[in-house]
From TrEMBL:
Limits of the Carboxymuconolactone decarboxylase-like domain: 36-117
Gene Ontology molecular function: peroxiredoxin activity
Membrane-traversing stretches: none
Signal sequence annotation: none
Organism of derivation: Paenirhodobacter enshiensis
Lineage: Bacteria, Pseudomonadati, Pseudomonadota, Alphaproteobacteria, Rhodobacterales
Name this protein carries in UniProt: 4-carboxymuconolactone decarboxylase
PANTHER family noted in UniProt: 4-CARBOXYMUCONOLACTONE DECARBOXYLASE FAMILY PROTEIN, CARBOXYMUCONOLACTONE DECARBOXYLASE-LIKE DOMAIN-CONTAINING PROTEIN
InterPro entries: 4CMD/NDH-1_regulator, AhpD-like, CMD-like, Decarb_PcaC
Amino acid sequence: MSDARFDKGMEVRRAVLGDAHVDRAEAAKTDIDLPFQELITVSAWGTVWASDAISRRERSMLTLALLAATGNFEEIPMHIRATARTGASKRDVMEAFQHVAVYAGVPRANHAIKLARQTYAEMEAAQQ
């Protein structure tokens, strides 16, 4: 696919998630999920994440809170790793998860915090 929003989506996706992650995802694409991959590249990355209405730090916090609040825990580690590029600090993330606890439930926030702690520990170990 070659269109400006797709190209912008790939640029933003790489900036937020890192080249290694995007390269792995691109290599794993199949004919079955190609339309879905194009959809998320255009809509999530080329439209929502590409907007300059709020910062990437704020967008990162919103994304993590929404993932936790809706119980979509599988993507939390990926978005925790992205905080290294978006500027969202550990404190920012914990503040977002406190909102989740109050507005969506303590068990969801608790699980999200567990995933964040594990992911931050992995990130720190990889830097050593």
